[in-house]
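Hi all, a correction to my earlier message: I attached the wrong file for CSD domain-containing protein. Here's the right sequence:
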Amino acid sequence: MYGKVTKYFSDKGYGFIRGEDGNTYFIHKSNLYGEHIECGYYVHFKVFINGRSDYNAKSVIVIEAPERKVRNGKKHK
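and the right structure:
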């Protein structure tokens, strides 16, 4: 499934993806497999069910990362 990262708390290691089906999926850093994500990134992921929720994301792959804002003529990462 495809979706867009709507919130990601890197200090806490979790966030949320809005899937193409309109549902919101929980993502934990342990399911990123080395990928770096931030709000606004477009991703592909697999849906899985655990004991707490039917809406979880794993095997997350970044499809498109938006450009960073430019300050003082330089792109910031």
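Sorry for the mix-up. The mean pLDDT is 87.
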